[in-house]
Amino acid sequence: MVAFTRGDYVCENESVIISANDVKKYAETSNDFNAIHLDFQSAVEAGFEREIVHGMLVMGIAESRLSVVFPTSFVVSYETKFLHPVLVGELLTISYVVIDEDLDFITIKIEVTIENGKIAIIGVIQFTNVGG
């Protein structure tokens, strides 16, 4: 496992924009066709500015960046809090900070910040080293 200590950034902050096409593909894969994700009018009627991204799509993208850093590790636990909606086409900034580590495990806090500076999603993911 790559050596990190508490407080280290695991990788550079990532900037991501999730498109309507990304959301459509995720809906098809997950079978989650809730109209707030796919239809502008339905999203507005539900109180959003426009369509919102599936929260787990955002976290899946965030976690996939970590698989490059920890290619021989696997996820032991994954917690997520959704604080604010992520809008389709919105610029996201994702940060990854080590919050705990030992010889067998590393725990990373993922924060997804939306364009207005608010934290939209907080995730805590713990990896272990396969055969480590």
TrEMBL record:
Q: Which Gene3D superfamilies match?
A: Hotdog Thioesterase
Among the GO molecular function terms of this UniProt record, one is: (3R)-hydroxyacyl-[acyl-carrier-protein] dehydratase activity
Task: Please name the GO terms of the biological process aspect recorded for this protein, alphabetically.
Answer: fatty acid biosynthetic process
Question: What sections of the sequence does the record tag as coiled-coil?
Answer: none
Domain named MaoC-like: residues: 14-114
Name of the protein: MaoC-like domain-containing protein
